[in-house]
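2024-03-11 09:14:02 DEBUG pipeline.ingest accepted 1 chain
2024-03-11 09:14:02 DEBUG pipeline.ingest length=115
2024-03-11 09:14:03 DEBUG pipeline.predict start
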Amino acid sequence: MKKYIIAISVAVLAFWTHSHADISLTQKALKPVIVYQCGQELKDSKVWKVSTYLMQDTNKAKLEHNVCDCVGEHALKDVPASTLLKATVNEEAKNQLARQAVANSLKGCVQKLVK
């Protein structure tokens, strides 16, 4: 019974994803994962640590929030619907997609916000 419910949910989600061009329900569901992953990547980055060393904590937190929000908005734009659907069902696929999406859009968002 669970398999049928999951299959129907995925089919409905696939239809819905293809019918909405701007931002899909799947992208909205994955955005918090992307934003969280972005924060973790920044905190682990030596470049981030060096470049924000002299910043006040409030300014550093605000910049991190702005950068990760930008990453969350732009990270999944060119990801195929099939990959998004797989990420909603498979935890490892979700984590891999989050890492890839953050890596692809982080540099551009940092450059955009620092200018």
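2024-03-11 09:14:41 DEBUG pipeline.report The mean pLDDT is 77.
2024-03-11 09:14:41 DEBUG pipeline.predict end
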